[in-house]
Design goal:
The protein has 84 residues and is mainly alpha-helical. The chain is 45% helix and 0% strand. The chain is built from two helices and no strands. Helix 1 runs antiparallel to helix 2.
Length: 84
């Protein structure tokens, strides 16, 4: 049986190293205070509604005041997505 030729393999050269991209974070110092303010405003809105038996904050909204309070809380969660 004839012997096969031995092929010379090329030396291994690692791929060029990639430069780590520097991520520049924007200053988002406003996010935490606004988020907490929205949470507290929504909570205060709901508490005031229950403590005053529905006559405050806005009497015409009746039970929709709860939705407004939870809307402020949801807006706080929306703002929290900007936090880095």
């Amino acid at each position: 049986m004839p012997k096969s030729r031995i092929r010379k393999k090329a030396d291994y050269t690692p791929p060029p190293s990639k430069q780590a991209a520097q991520i520049k974070l924007a200053n988002r110092g406003w996010v935490a205070p606004v988020m907490l303010a929205m949470f507290l405003l929504g909570l205060a809105w709901i508490v005031v509604f229950y403590v005053t038996d529905g006559s405050l904050p806005i009497d015409q909204l009746d039970n929709w005041n709860i939705v407004v309070g939870f809307g402020f809380i949801a807006a706080g969660f929306g703002v929290s997505t900007q936090w880095k």
